[in-house]
């Protein structure tokens, strides 16, 4: 069956960015001039996804507004002849987006369970907003290509430093079957580094078969007393094969302050409008931090 649907959980409280996220969803924090969630939606569309469900919660209306039309703004831009900006604000409105709310913050597994009726017995992808991915072929499309051959659930993974394994779901691989495709023995949510079965971390793109929903319904709270998607996937792996696909492209972690800032700088260096000024500024900063040694007289 064709993979047509994506779920983007966006109900998280964004505590790492407080107080910026007190009244604004973290998904709306911009990288230069685009909210981070727009990059995720674009990856879905570039991968051939037709329908996207965003799981929201309290205070997340700005996400819905961002993807809606804004007649007053559009009329104003038209009147002033700002056709370039008009095009920019209109291009986000013709996407097949759906919204559902997660009433209680019970964890990622619970957020994905909210998508059950929307998904309706089809394979689907889950895309987390904290990571922006870049590669020749979008990562979500890479997972779909794997699924088209195996018809099995497949998670994207990437190597992380050993000390960081405590921040991710970690896989216990059995063997590499094909270039970067692993058979998996178990999936462990955020193990202490001494217990980590590998350094292959789940990076927020999942292709799942709909059988995951029955398991999520009965999933007991795990790490942090939340319903963990990783735990349900580990149980799914006992009844059908679940693979891991190693991503070798670029990953930008916008879910923490330093990663967010690095991403903004990298994208700024590629942005025609500001790249020259930014390059000059970064050089100046570098020289200020590490002054050139004075020539001896
Ligand atoms: C979630 C998942 C974790 C995964 C991570 C990827 O954790 O629970 O397994 O490795 O996303 O970003 P979170 O970062 O939301 O705490």
Give an overview of the whole structure.
The chain is of the alpha/beta class and 297 residues long. The protein has two domains: 5-149 and 204-238, Spore Coat Polysaccharide Biosynthesis Protein SpsA, Chain A, CATH 3.90.550; 257-289, no CATH class. It has eleven helices and 13 strands. A hairpin with a 2-residue loop joins strand 9 and strand 10 (181-189). The radius of gyration is 21 Å and the shape is globular. The structure holds 1-O-phosphono-alpha-D-glucopyranose (G1P). 1-O-phosphono-alpha-D-glucopyranose is lined by residues 108, 128, 130-131, 168-169, 189, 201-204, 228-230.
List keywords for this structure.
297 residues; single chain; Spore Coat Polysaccharide Biosynthesis Protein SpsA, Chain A; alpha/beta; 13 strands; binds 1-O-phosphono-alpha-D-glucopyranose; 2 domains; two-stranded antiparallel ribbon; nine-stranded mixed sheet
């Amino acid at each position: 069956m064709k993979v047509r649907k994506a779920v983007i959980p966006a109900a998280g409280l964004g505590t790492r960015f407080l107080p910026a996220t007190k009244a604004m969803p973290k998904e709306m924090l911009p990288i230069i001039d685009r909210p981070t969630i727009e990059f995720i939606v674009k990856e879905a569309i570039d991968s051939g996804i037709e329908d996207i469900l965003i799981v929201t919660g309290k205070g997340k209306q700005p996400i819905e507004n961002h993807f809606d039309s804004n007649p007053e703004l559009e009329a104003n831009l038209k009147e002033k002849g700002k056709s370039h900006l008009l095009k920019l604000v209109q291009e986000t409105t013709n996407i097949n987006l759906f919204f559902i709310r997660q009433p209680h913050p019970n964890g990622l597994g619970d957020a994905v369970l909210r998508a059950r009726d929307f998904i309706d017995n089809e394979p689907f992808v889950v895309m987390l907003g904290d990571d922006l991915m870049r590669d020749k072929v979008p990562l979500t499309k890479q997972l779909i290509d794997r699924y088209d051959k195996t018809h099995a659930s497949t998670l994207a993974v990437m190597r992380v430093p050993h000390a960081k394994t405590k921040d991710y779901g970690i896989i216990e691989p059995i063997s590499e079957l094909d270039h970067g495709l692993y058979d998996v023995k178990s999936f462990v949510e955020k193990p202490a580094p001494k217990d980590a079965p590998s350094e292959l971390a789940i990076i927020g793109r999942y292709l799942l078969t709909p059988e995951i929903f029955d398991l999520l319904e009965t999933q007991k709270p795990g790490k942090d007393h939340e319903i963990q998607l990783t735990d349900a996937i580990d149980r799914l792996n006992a009844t059908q094969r679940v693979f891991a696909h190693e991503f070798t492209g670029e990953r930008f972690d916008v879910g923490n302050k330093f990663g967010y800032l690095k991403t903004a700088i990298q994208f700024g260096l590629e942005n025609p409008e500001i790249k020259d000024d930014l390059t000059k500024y970064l050089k100046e900063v570098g020289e200020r931090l590490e002054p050139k040694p004075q020539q001896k007289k």
